[in-house]
Amino acid sequence: MKNSIYSTAAGMLTSLARLDIATNNLVNIGTTGYKSDISFEETLRNLSNGPFPGKDQPVLGGNAIDMKNGIIQTTGRDLDLAFEGPGFFAVLGPNNQELYTRNGEFALNSNKELVNADGYNILDKFDKKITVIGDKFQFSPSGELFIDGAYYTTTKIVDIPNRDHLEKIGGTFFKLKDNAPQPQPVETPQIAVGALEKSNADLLLEAANISNTQRTFDAQKAVADVVLNSLRKVITEIPRPI
Questions:
Q1: Domain of 57?
Q2: Does 55 share its domain with 140?
Q3: pTM reported for the whole predicted model
Q4: Domain count, the chain
Q5: Do 53 and 129 share a domain, yes or no?
Q6: Residue 166 contacts by C-beta under 8 Å, 6 or more apart in sequence?
Q7: pLDDT tens readout for residues 147-202
Q8: Do 111 and 15 have their domain in common?
């Protein structure tokens, strides 16, 4: 009976974790450059159709990042960039920490510096902030910035092939985990200028995940109630010594 309690409790905790993941993905359906999370159990399920921990019993294991590309949406803005292949833009985050993002929705701040929607500076290939001084600016599909028709600099574009080295920060930012190797520059990036990469979260899939997970949790709770009631009955009805 003790094992039944532990197993059911683990199942309920796993369901709550999956519900948090699906809800967060659903909330970020409209977030540019967002990469959805998938549960550890779902990751194992996708790797193999055979037996795996959690297929026949609950498993706790956190979550992974789904890095598949989102849909490219044309905007026509000169400062909107979207990756059509691998790569991350490098930005200068809080405390001068280098962060990485697929969100290419850029703008100019009051100092004419190229920043993202959160106000973080976009870095060039020399790890410098980009200041745009001129009347006309344009990006090339390889991330080069031209001002008034002349080449100015190139945005820093890197790739982290091993996604296990990435840790998600907020909705669309990533940082390297401790002791992870430095990211590699992308030699020939493929960028759509005047476009943005939308969230890769699937509205129908996440809604179904929430519904299915809620039903699973309710069933697990019902089992837990039965087990606890049985345990309570055993304890209260044990004959007392005379």
A1: 2-67+201-237
A2: no
A3: 0.76
A4: 2
A5: no
A6: 65, 100, 160, 174, 175, 176, 177
A7: 999 999 999 999 998 888 999 988 899 999 999 999 999 989 999 999 999 999 98
A8: no
